[in-house]
Amino acid sequence: MSTPTLRHFHHLDDAVVERLFLHRPQPITHGDPTRVLALALGATLYVPGNRDDLAGTIRRRFADGVTSMVIDLEDAVADDQEDHAAACAVAALDELADGPTAGMLLFVRTRTPERIPKIAAELGAGRAALSGFVLPKFTASIAREGLDAVVRASEVLGTHLYAMPVLESPEIVYRETRDAELSRIAQHLNEYRDHVLAARIGATDMCGMFGIRRDRDLTIYDVRVAADAIASIINYLARGDGTGHIVTGPVWEYFADHERLFRPTLRQTPFAEHDAVLFRQQLVSRDIDGLLREIALDRANGMHGKTVIHPTHVAAVHALSAVTHEEYHDAVDIAGGNAGGVRPSTYRNKMNELKPHRHWARGVLDRAHVFGVTNPNVTFVDLLTALVPA
Predict the structure, then answer these.
(1) Residues 99-111: pLDDT tens digits?
(2) Where does Mg(2+) bind (predicted)?
């Protein structure tokens, strides 16, 4: 039996892919290196475990370009529905094991580590569809229990499962405990490195500790208490020297229209240049402008991918994950220079310092493998117009 594969933008017509990409996204398998799989998460869509036709929902999302999903048994499910949701998750994974979604990255988010071995024991064919477990409210005091549970589930099922801890606890957010807590978490994640795919950030819980809910005209980086905690998480856990992990961007909460308080932040210029002003208006009406800005800030702050709670957000995350022609050539120039020094970029619009930017360049080349490299003059607007239905 062939190994199931996953490829970003698999749902686009071949002619569209040819027009957009100089180097196409490469196929990904569950046996690829951890960093490649972590980058391949892209937009990770959460779905309640007690949703009707759970397997059918996952199939439809995959057909629309979603590559990673989390079946949520925690916040998305009422307390008295947890057992039912867990049973639905097992049934859906068993049903999906042999279908076209087998290459997806599928996870289950449990409320406590005790649920993990129970799910593993109940799975049949679904062991082939399960990629791992999301560990919410992750703290140093429960880290070993949760990570051990994932390792034991791997042994029971005879497959390599990954953990994705969610960093959202008061111990991380409050300044007086943050450094000690993150230092201990870093030690635990390093100990279980082979089973840690990525660390996720629970910004909604962080804001909730202060009675804050950010408006859609603001990004999480405008909320200083959350932004400070995120910066510390990156500092401890996402270092580019080989000791770090992939950290994913926090959820964007909004997807419905409302009367805007401020002028939209999505600039008109790139859309006007691509005869896409009407498309811009459609994006603004769907509140995607704020999401695009936050994705750009996620990347600027060292994160990859994003938690999403609505399918319409997936296209934005993936469009901004593709490597541009300019980025790619800068990365190739930097990665190929071993002696250090400074060179003008191929595009003649910046200086590439070879040593300081080497980690960045290697990261870009890894992302190019997963998300592809766009053709010259192809921008995120072109990708979005291809990905978002008219």
Answers:
(1) 889 899 999 999 9
(2) 205
